[in-house]
Amino acid sequence: MKLEFSGAALGVTGSKHLLHVNDHKVLLDCGLFQGHRKQAALANSKFPFEASEIDALVLSHAHIDHSGAIPILVKKGFRGPIYCTHATRDLCAIMLKDSAYIQERDAEWFRKKTKDPKAEPLYTIEDAERAMTLFRSVAYDQEFSPAPGTKVTFRDAGHILGSAMEEWVIEDEDINKTVRFGFTGDLGRKDLPILRDPTQLKDLDVFITESTYGNRFHDEIADVEDKFAQEVNDAIARKGKILIPSFAVERTQEILYVLRELQHAKKIPAIPVFVDSPLATNATEVFRLHTECFDQELKAMFDRGEDPFCPDCGSLQFTQSVDESKALNNFPGPMMIISASGMCEAGRIRHHLANNIADPNTLILIVGFMAQNTLGRKLVEKENPVNIFGEPHELNAEVQIFNAFSAHADQKGLLRFAGGVGKSKAVFCVHGEEEAMEVFQGELKKLGNLKDAEVFIPRPGDIFELQKDKTWKKSEEFNEISRSLFTEEDFTAISA
User: Fold this and answer.
1) Taking the CB of residue 284, how many other CB atoms lie within 10 A of it?
2) CATH T-level topology, domain 2-216+408-495
3) What digits encode the pLDDT tens for the residues 56-89?
4) CATH number, span 221-405
5) Residue 463 phi/psi, 5° resolution?
6) CB 392 within 8 A of CB 172
7) What's the pTM value of the predicted model, to 2 decimals?
């Protein structure tokens, strides 16, 4: 048994981990690199594995940094099954198509702008639709076998709708022993709106854990709602526009839920709220289909006759067309616009920022993680001016950060989960920036159940082999393509 690491090793995007087991290969997630456009394009141009040799893909959730490269995998010859939960399949059906549409439009723009006839999308809408034919959805807590000698069960990760942790029981032929293996995917938080709390995996010999917030702590949701209401009320008092860059899936729906709760408690008045993202609109419809993922609080809201996701109900409106989006420029405040992308690197939010960022009455609410080198991170760090569409814009708007809305577990949540997995022999930290993972690595070693465990921070291209005593050893071989994703030469090319 081997584990091979590619994307989301020393980074938070492009998740791809390859499991070699019993002469078969199973890919865990297949995500696109996101972030700074040039850097992401360079990384996405290099696919690290021979697609036709992969027997199956097990997908933790629908976020594009975990699922977005699936059409590339299929284009390159993968023909195996793609296992995921029912809600993840429905979300991927809209998200992969949306990703393809954006790439097609971007390629068209580059062909016109640069007169380069070779500018092509990574994949097309047709490619995305072809990939969807390979999906095989499985319910939570239902066992399936992606390779001989393996049994896998999806457990609720509490991260986004349909997100799953993977609990593997492997009869490993190389060491002739049973190995209990876990993969967190992206681990959610307790007491988040909408979703049930994450499940605890137990008795694991080895596990891969995300570590996005391995060195940080979130404010508690219950404590932050009053502060959120105060910021919104202050912006309403000055008749300002409230801009919320938001991921179309989960974060948008969480904000709608919180707004409805605050209005119900009469902590904020009803103002016009526009969800300006076709993908968010479609994703919200998927949410309404999957009540099996809802927590008791959301079910209680529905029971009292309130639907926070209802399109065109009360002051909530979902825009679709470009003309409807542009019309918001002339809509007077106070009003709120929730728009993608969550890191401000694409989509309609950039237009709204360009039109309103210089106005001191504007409030920008940051409600999610912003990766390095993104426009969103520059707003978090109050860089001034900031470039939008290649033009400098003065940042006069108020910027407030609400990390309580993060769908990722913080250090406390990650350690709580790791402390419950049993006496594992090894832990692999992925999906985090290097500083966060190094801090988290040190904290993991303090846990009583992991005091004798090896805690690894794999680099892109690293391969680890299972030993007969269930410990793990780094192999001398490595994946050259994965290793080359972020070399000094790549960074030089990017900065140039």
Assistant:
1) 21
2) Metallo-beta-lactamase; Chain A (3.60.15)
3) 999 999 999 999 999 999 999 999 999 999 999 9
4) 3.40.50.10890
5) -125, 130
6) no
7) 0.90
